[in-house]
Amino acid sequence: MKKIVCFHLYNDYSGSPKVFSMIIRGLLSKGYQIELYTSRTEGFLTDIDGVTYHTFSYKWTKSKVMTLFRMFYAQLYIFISSLKYKQKKDTLFYINTICPVGAAFSALLNHIPVLYHVHEKYVNPNALHLFYEKTWKICATRTIFVSKYLQKQYDKKNMESVVVYNTLSEEFLSHIEIKNKRSRPYNILMISSLKIYKGVDVLVELAKRLPQYNFSLVLNSSQSEITSFFSGISSNLKIYPAQPTVYKFLHEADLVLNLSNPSLWVETFGLTLLEAMAYQLPVICPPVGGPIELVKNDENGFCIDSRNMDELIEKIIYILESGNYERLSKNAKAQSLLFDYGNMIDEIENQIKRV
């Protein structure tokens, strides 16, 4: 199968389109023809050389009704447009996340094999999430999961699946600069979506309670959304809108946090953690989900429930002030080297051939 038709519902600067853009570039380098259906928004899937694009109007709004209407339109566009591949026997559908159900139904109707790449597990799924999940289980020929944790969350009966860990792109690795010397005040970084379940409120509180450190929060949101969301933040916290690259933030950081609330959201991998470790940065992450496959307590960071503020503060101070920073830093770098981009692309190509 040399033609791969790829689907991703919402293109932005978050983790799943970032990983998908890396995969697409890797498959292009192996000679595959790639067509991509995605939203007409700016993100990691924008302007990839060699890709044939099919874009549609879709974005989130404050109005749930309007967002639902746009989502329905996007799914209908994908379904109708992808029906044209019916007679092309050398074609595979590659669906990123479980959201693009329009592509799944089109594939089912036209007997086209489907490779799903699953990144998510909803803690409190609504009716739409359950519909996505049911459609995926019916339509998938084979499924790629991003962590062992995620694979275990789903019923694997009659499901052909494999775990392929996310990695860092060659472009990302080429931009890595390591600090020659750390200097006070130390810098603490979090890269996140603008959601309460991601722990943005916890970071605001940490900045207030640890005035001796500088905090940076890079959000996958516009400046207007940030302005309307936050008020009364302390002077040692800087908040930035969506960024196409985060190299400079990682270069300036001394510690990276992931503060997702486990009762509301479970991280299935933790790409920002891997990026941080490639920069020799210790990390703090939740004690559940995919991150615990990357982070080991007192080796390259700590796994802490973000609802435990006192423990968070204790471990932040320990990492930065106890004299163990160099050891944690070296271990973080060593862990990041286990996740190889070339191996990821080879394994995904292997799954394509098996389909």
UniProtKB/TrEMBL annotation:
Keywords: Membrane, Transmembrane, Transmembrane helix
Domain Glycosyl transferase family residues, every copy: 177-334
Keyword rRNA processing: no
Protein name: Glycosyltransferase involved in cell wall biosynthesis
Keyword Ligase applies: no
Chain segments annotated as coiled-coil in the UniProt record: none
InterPro entries: Glyco_trans_1
Transmembrane segments: 91-112
Gene3D superfamilies: Glycogen Phosphorylase B
